[in-house]
Amino acid sequence: MRVAVIGAGPAGISASLVLVARSVHVTMLDEQQSAGGQIYRNLANVSVDQAQSLGSDYITGKSLLKQLEQAIDKKILTRFSRTSVWSVTEKKEDYWSIDGKSYCQKFDAIILATGSIERAMPIDGWTNPGVITVGAAQILIKTARYSPPSSVLVGSGPLFYLVACQMLEMGNPPKALLETQNNLDLLKAFIQLRPNLTSLLYLAKGLVMLAKLRFAGVKRIKAVRDVRIKSKGNAHIIEFSKVGTKSQIEAETVLLHAGVHPNIQITQALGLKHDWSQENHCFEPRTDKFGRTSLNNILVAGDGIKILGADAAKISGNCAALALLVDNGFVNAKADLSRTYRAHQKYVQIHKFLDVLYAPKDWYSCPTNNIVICRCEEVTAGKIREAVKIGCLGPNQLKAYSRCGMGNCQGRYCGNIVVNLISEMVGQTPEETGYFRIRSPIKPVSLAEVANLETII
Amino acid sequence: MRTEADFAIIGGGIVGLSVAHGLLKQGCSVICIDGSDTDFRASRGNFGLVWVQGKGIRAPFYAAWTQNAARIYPDFVSELSQETGVQINYNQAGGYEYFTDPHTLSQRMEEYKQLKKALNDDYPYEFLSSSQIRAAEPMIGGETIGASFYPYDGHLNPLQLLKALASYCQKKGLSHYLGEELKTADKKEGVFRLVTKKGLTISANKVVISAGLGAKKIGPLFGFLGLVSPQRGQILVTEKISPILNRPSVTIRQVDEGAIQIGDSQEQAGFNDNETQAQMSRIARNAIKVMPKLAQLRLVRAWGSLRVMSPDGLPIYHQSHTMPGAFLITCHSGITLAATHSTNLSLWLTGHKNAPELSGFSEDRFHA
Amino acid sequence: MPQNFPDLARIDSMPKSFFYFDEKKIYFEQDMSVAAALLCAGVTDFRQTQVLHKPRGPFCMMGACFDCLLVIDGMVNQQGCMRLAKQGIKVKRQTSDVLSEIN
Question: Within a 10 A sphere around the Cβ of A60, how many other Cβ atoms?
Answer without folding.
Answer: 16
